[in-house]
Amino acid sequence: MLQLPDNFSDWFAWHWFQPATLLAYDWARPFFLYAIIPVAIFLLVWSLVKLKVRRKTDVAFFESKPIRQWTSYLRFLPDILFGISLVLIFLALARPQKTTEQVEQYAEGIDIMLILDTSGSMELKDFKPNRLEAAKKVAENFINGRFQDRIGLVVFAGDAYSLVPLTTDYDLLSANLKSVKLGMIPNDGTAIGSALAVAINRMRDSNAKSKIAILISDGENTAGNLDPSIAAKMASAFGMKLYTIGVGAEGTVPYGTDVFGNTTYVETRLDETNLREIAEIGNGYFYRAENQNALQEIFRTINKLEKVAIKETRYRDTREFYQVYLRFAIVFFLMWLFTKNSFLTNALED
């Protein structure tokens, strides 16, 4: 980041004239930059005119041709120094600046528990590549769209476990979500009531403005010791809102391949009644997703329903750098005054 120098050597460093430095500035008065070219043209024309009309002293030369010495070019030095000082003054008048802006965003985040079914039926391939992987992908997109919300993850099959507690570490959450796989819970089945109980236990002490749980499952409650409706009432008592998503098509769906590579099919059905009841008791909504696009749209809808206002504060820090070029201009102007009163100047011109 550009900043004003702290010591003498930095004030007069040549990096102030590098193209990268000049292009990095914000110019408060850029019209002074545009004035440099016409002024330079004027000075050049004026110098040529002065060269033609200046007063000359008659001098008698020998017949031999005089030899031009390199020192004869020093007579142009005062004009060069004056031109450089003038350009530097215009640079200073253009007021080079560098503005940095810091944005602080904050919001009253909400607490969200994702409850994901990992039972054997989530291996069905009416979603690509299967129901579980499709649900994981959509859930990850949902996580990436949140801001300052604490999100946790519960996985269940025949048993339920809290895989990630409520956290704002979305990288940690995404890494654990990717690690979810079929068969990670040895006891197969669908313990919806137990999964809700684990989520409630994680959120019951939360002081968040809003607490929601999103249950993703493709089957009816077939395991666990807690009835899902009772768990939903407990969730409601703790101020939690329940969204339930039933994934999967009904009827014959592809399951895998046999030993000959032929696709095998199974009959499947979704217990909508149970999931609807849970959502109704939990003051939320039930959604049905028969394909991946529908599942994606459901999460978009929930994302909109549970959005909180994001506030932001902007801090702008503007630093002026005209002092650097003004100091250079003063140095070159003093050099011009010195050479103007030296042997380098034609005394008859003044």
From TrEMBL:
A Pfam family this chain is assigned to: VWA
TM spans (from-to): 31-51, 321-338
Name by which UniProt lists this protein: VWA domain-containing protein
InterPro entries named in the record: UPF0353/GerABKA_families, VWF_A, vWFA_dom_sf
Top-level taxonomy: Bacteria, Pseudomonadati, Bacteroidota, Cytophagia, Cytophagales
Keywords from the named record: Cell membrane, Membrane, Transmembrane, Transmembrane helix
PANTHER family on file: LEUCINE ZIPPER PROTEIN 4, SPORE GERMINATION PROTEIN
VWFA domain location: 111-302
Organism: Adhaeribacter terreus
